[in-house]
Structure formats: C-alpha cells, structure tokens
Amino acid sequence: MSVERTLSIIKPDATKRNLTGLINAKIENAGLKIIAQKRLQLTRSMAETFYEIHKERPFFNDLVDFMISGAVVVQVLEGDNAVKLNRDVMGSTNPDDAEEGTIRKEFAESIEANSVHGSDSLENAQNEISFFFANIELVN
Ligand code: CMP
Fold first, then answer.
1. Cα(126)–Cα(140) distance, rounded to whole angstroms?
2. Pocket lining: 120 vs ligand 1, CB cutoff 6 Å
3. How far apart, in Å, are the Cα atoms of 127 and each of 11, 108, 118, 139?
4. Is 30 exposed, middle or buried (0-12, 13-18, 19+ CB in 10 A)?
5. Please, are residues 125 and 138 in contact by the beta-carbon 8 Å criterion?
6. 117 catalytic per annotation
7. Residue of 5, 11, 87, 117 marked catalytic
C-alpha cells in the first residue's frame, strides 16, 4: 500500500445543511487524515476551470451554478490508497446507487447536489490539490 493524497470538496448542499462535521467524521473514521482544509466561496471562473473536463457535458452549466450557490469546504486527505478509499467512503455519484453507510447515501440530495467531490485518480488528485493549496498549507 502507498500513502497518497487526494482532494475532497464538501459541496454547497452539505455546507448549507451544516454537515461538514458529520462528513469529516466519516472521512476520519475511514482512516483518512485531513491534512488541509478551508472554506471558500468559489467564483464562476474557478468552478468552470476546476470542472473543465466536463465542459462539453449537458450538465456543465448547472454544475457550475450549483458549485457557486454557497460555500464549499476544500480539503486534502492523506492515507493508504487515499484516492480509492475516499471514493469508497463517498459512494456512487448518484445517491440512488450509493452503498449503505456512504456519505452520498446518507447525505446527498441528488446526482448534482451530491454533497462531496473526490479526485478520481492520483494524477487528477495532484492537479486538483495544487489548484486549491500551496505546499506550505499541507501539514501532516
Ligand atoms: P463530481 O464528483 O463533483 O464530478 C462531476 C459532477 O457533476 C458530479 O460529481 C455530479 O455532482 C455532477 N453531475 C451532475 N449531473 C451529472 C450526471 N448526469 N452525470 C454525472 N455527474 C453529474
């Protein structure tokens, strides 16, 4: 097993319902360490750049509108196989398909308002972490 870092975002549907602590407890109980965290209001330009990979998808504009509809909490998680472990803790993108006990099963409202984002590969994790954090902010 190798120690990895991954980017997590607690999305506006969850911050509005004051779920940051409950979501962080699920992350920590799974063995992941939150080594950096900040609460931000994304600008439209930041959200468009972050989700650029989905630019051609029909849901892109709605996704950007949603991501700037309230505060987000961006965080860096560290642990053994952190990228996959966090994806397992999050559950499927669509909460209807998410497994019992996962964050999305418990908290997500819809496929769009699905409470959390997590990097889907180690390469994307490195890019997404550097989008939000400077190295000096990552303290393990
Ligand atoms: P996330 O992991 O943040 O990555 C892209 C997001 O697009 C995804 O979670 C969903 O919240 C959102 N999204 C909205 N509609 C869809 C859809 N039909 N299929 C996949 N993702 C969607």
1. 16
2. no
3. 19, 25, 12, 18
4. middle
5. no
6. yes
7. 117
